[in-house]
């Protein structure tokens, strides 16, 4: 039976970069004889405009049945005055939470060709290969109660709740320990346990699990403020980092820049049934949307992750990653990763170049 991929381009640069990933998918489908059917749906602002909600029940139902979801990006100034629970971003958050996509893997590795594009000195980032494991369906993003209330004196007060259950902490820690076992054997758990009870519980449980089940993993703990500083001071000290939803959001944008651009960073969001949604770490980039300037490589690398993790098509995933590296070898760069002596290209040219490299690889 053919595998089903649901493609959700979303808003802003989302549709521009997803088109490039789909071109790449077409090539690997024929090269590796993959039986894959792709369907498309609306999410975010695009869905709001068409249906009045950022995610319809129909699209959610298709997502739940898919073998993999390729997600672009959502959001933009057009919808910024929507009520919180109807913003484009809610479409993404609902997909994550309804599908139980709790484990967000955000690898940050430097393609050696992009050392010049990193904002850090070459020696600090050469060989950089970090995996951020971000908890994605809990924490302050989803904790109750939340809202804005009016106090007795008429002043308004906004509030959110930072909540984690033991089971939520243990299942994300397990993913991170196991990832560390397969990689460099080191895990840094990032928290704010000096201030927040919820993260003191996090540290306690991660410590217990490390001692009981993962004595082969070298476990350390770091406060999130220090972790942000260490990421830009000496990022290669990290192998796997595990943290909660909001800290992971912030630290992964920070790690992105070490690799040259947020336009290079893919991600996978997995549930307990190993279903997955794959998306770039960046957003809809309204400042460059519609201009043909966006870097499609994070989206293309997200497709490679989908093929690797959800479809088990390792050769096709390897070929895509090799083609991306070859394009960088040729000196082609979108504006975000541009450097002296390289050829600046747009979104479509970059996608075409990856396609061409794949074709050369197979000939
Ligand atoms: P952003 O990631 O969209 O953009 C930040 C900066 O990075 C911008 O200057 C942008 O031009 C640049 N950039 C991002 N992706 C790029 C790419 N592929 N190529 C070249 N440059 C790129 O973050 P933001 O500006 O804070 O947010 C814009 C909108 O996106 C907001 O509505 C936000 O909620 C949404 N957002 C969505 C997602 C998602 O869908 N997963 C993630 C983050 C932000
Ligand atoms: C991300 C984004 C999302 C998040 C937003 C758009 C809901 O920033 O995927 O990193 O905060 O998780
Ligand atoms: Mn983010």
Write a structural description.
Helix content is 42%, strand content 20%. The chain has 363 residues and is of the alpha/beta class. It has two domains: 1-102 and 266-363, 3-Layer(aba) Sandwich (Isopropylmalate Dehydrogenase), CATH 3.40.718; 129-258, Isopropylmalate Dehydrogenase. A hairpin with a 5-residue loop joins β11 (266-270) and β12 (276-280). α11 (314-329) crosses α12. The longest helix is centred in the N-terminal third of the chain and has 18 residues, at 14-31. The site of manganese (II) ion has 2 residues, from α9.
Quote the average pLDDT. Answer: 97
Rg computed from alpha carbons, rounded to a whole number of angstroms: 20 Å
Largest sheet: 10 strands, mixed
What is the total number of structural domains?
2
* Distance between the ends: 28 Å
Q: Which CATH top level class of the largest domain fits?
A: Alpha Beta
Keywords:
363 residues, alpha/beta, Isopropylmalate Dehydrogenase, 2 domains, ten-stranded mixed β-sheet, two-stranded antiparallel sheet, 14 strands, 42% helix, 20% strand, binds nicotinamide-adenine-dinucleotide, binds 3-isopropylmalic acid, binds manganese (II) ion
In short:
The protein is α/β, with parallel strands linked by helices and 363 residues long.
Write the layout of secondary structure elements.
Elements (H helix, E strand, L loop, with lengths): L2 E8 L3 H18 L4 E5 L4 H7 L5 H9 L2 E6 L14 H11 L4 E7 L12 H4 L3 E7 L11 E4 L5 E4 L6 H17 L3 E6 L5 H17 L4 E6 H10 L6 E4 L1 H14 L7 E5 L5 E5 L16 H14 L3 H16 L2 E2 L9 E2 L2 H16 L1
Helix pairs in contact: 1-10, 1-12, 6-7, 8-9, 10-11, 11-12
The protein binds nicotinamide-adenine-dinucleotide, 3-isopropylmalic acid and manganese (II) ion (MN).
């Amino acid at each position: 039976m053919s595998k089903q991929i649901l493609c959700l381009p979303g808003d802003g640069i989302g549709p521009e970069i997803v088109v490039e990933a789909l071109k790449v998918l077409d090539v690997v489908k024929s090269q590796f004889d993959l039986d894959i059917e792709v369907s498309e749906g609306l999410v975010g602002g695009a869905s709001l405009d068409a249906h009045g909600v950022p995610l319809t029940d129909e699209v959610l139902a298709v997502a739940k049945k898919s073998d993999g979801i390729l997600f672009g990006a959502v959001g933009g100034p057009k919808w910024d005055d929507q009520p919180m629970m109807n913003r484009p971003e809610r479409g993404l958050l609902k997909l994550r939470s309804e599908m139980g996509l709790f484990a967000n893997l955000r690898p940050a590795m430097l393609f050696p060709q992009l050392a010049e594009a990193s904002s850090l000195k070459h020696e600090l980032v050469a060989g950089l290969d970090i995996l951020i494991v971000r908890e994605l369906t809990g924490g302050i993003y989803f904790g109750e109660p939340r809202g804005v209330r009016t106090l007795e004196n008429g002043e308004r007060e906004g509030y959110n709740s930072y909540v984690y259950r033991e089971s939520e902490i243990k299942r994300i820690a397990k993913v991170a320990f196991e990832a560390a076992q397969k990689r460099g054997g080191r895990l840094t758990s990032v928290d704010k346990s000096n201030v927040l009870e919820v993260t003191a519980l996090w540290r306690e449980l991660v410590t217990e699990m490390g001692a009981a089940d993962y004595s082969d993993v070298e476990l350390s703990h770091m406060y999130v403020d220090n972790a942000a500083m260490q990421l830009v001071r000496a990022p290669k000290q990290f192998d796997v980092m595990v943290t909660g939803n909001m800290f992971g959001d912030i630290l992964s944008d920070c790690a992105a820049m070490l690799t040259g651009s947020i336009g290079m960073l893919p991600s996978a969001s997995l549930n307990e049934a190993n279903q997955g949604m794959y998306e770039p770490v960046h957003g809809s980039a309204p400042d460059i949307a519609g201009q043909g300037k966006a870097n499609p490589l994070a989206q293309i690398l997200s497709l490679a992750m989908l093929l690797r993790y959800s479809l088990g098509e390792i050769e096709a995933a390897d070929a895509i990653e090799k083609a991306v590296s070859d394009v960088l070898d040729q000196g082609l760069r979108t504006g975000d990763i541009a450097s002296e002596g390289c050829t600046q290209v747009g979104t479509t040219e970059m996608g075409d170049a990856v396609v061409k490299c794949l074709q050369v690889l197979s000939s």
